[in-house]
Structure prediction request, 476 residues.
Amino acid sequence: MALDFSPVWQGWQALAAGTLITVEVTAASLGLGCILGLLVGVGRLSPQRRLVYGICTAYLTFIRGTPLLVQLFLLFFGLPQFGILLPAFLCGVLGLGIYSGAYVSEIVRGSIQSIDKGQMEAARSLGMSYRMAMLKVILPQAFVRMIPPLGNEFIALIKNSALVSLLTIGDVMHEGEKIISVSYRSLEVYLAIAFIYLVLTSTTTLILRRVEQSLRANGRV
Amino acid sequence: MTPLIVEVKGLGKSFGAQRVLQGIDFKVEQSQVVVIIGPSGSGKSTFLRCLNGLETAEEGSIRICGHAVLENGRIIDDAKLNQVRTDVGMVFQSFNLFPHLTVLGNVTIGPRKLRGLSAGDAEAAARKLLDKVGLAHKADAYPATLSGGQKQRVAIARALAMEPQVMLFDEPTSALDPELVGEVLQVMQALAGEGMTMLIVTHEMGFARDVADTVVVMDQGGIIEMGAPAQIFSAPREARTRSFLQAVLAKEPSA
Prediction:
């Protein structure tokens, strides 16, 4: 049986539009994930603040211990029972962002803990508060160390974003399936979708590598 | 009477079951240079780190530069401690320069963020200090490109930039290659000559003898003897001081 990619060519506009949605969903949830991850990661570093620590740990345990698909369905199909009807796109971004925030927080925490404790001592000895030392001394150094593991997390997020197609969001996966439903060319369309994801993830890898190299070249690590 | 910069009464601290400081009483007057010596594990560094609250002690009281740090075994709150620390310079064995900032950035960050100096004023003051420690030409370098001796001199400049009333040195030359020790000691000696109040934990006996006003000998968490360097080095009263000095001086042929 010969491969026939003509449905892919014919549907390129839909696929391109879907790719754009995929990028948008990923970028937005990435932003949310980084903000959440930073807050939770720093929050779990101060065990003396028991409430903050407890909330952060509970969040982490739930998010990492349950399937992303279930979390997305809770937001999309579960919340409406309480009259909270969020747009699909927002559900996708919230779900992915909250999910990746858990993993980012562990990256943040690990990078902060990898900074020599003499740095905090030196900053505190000058008279800086814990918060100022964290912002001016620790985080700028930890940030550089976060980039390689964050890159992996970004890539995981791009791939996981395919799940939002199940929330009626018109991402590249969703558009592809629409093409399949009329053309029955599953293999060709899924190959095309796989290729599109590959391009997105490879580009991300490349960009992050550049960023890391330039930071290292400046002697900042 | 010269004002007291450091006043310690009954300072006690334990790590679990082990008592690392056992009821230390201690005073430092303005412009005094006090060198603390003693075998490793005697509590010298812990004692020094208690003075600016990097370590918390459970017993006794500490007053430094007119502020209470520890009152009857209770450390003051964090915000007040930050205030105290702006008056107390600290230099570490491992330098702890901020690697993401230039030399100039390291020296200006404290004055800019904590003393409210403008970038221009902080920079002018920093350049003077860097000149003083002989590193004006390294202002724009990153710490990674400096030698150990240069790093420690920058660390001294960074502490001085806060215009502290007292400087604490925690084994400032112990991490240095032998040929780099001299340049750091020279800077410290010059500082002592300017009347800076200094507390120095060190193994450099030559420096203790030449620069210190008072030498404090610690062992097993307590001060076993203190006095002028001439007395400590030539006529130590305590047997433990004698055996410690014999052990260290045996390694220093020039002594």
Remarks:
- Chain A has a mean pLDDT of 91.
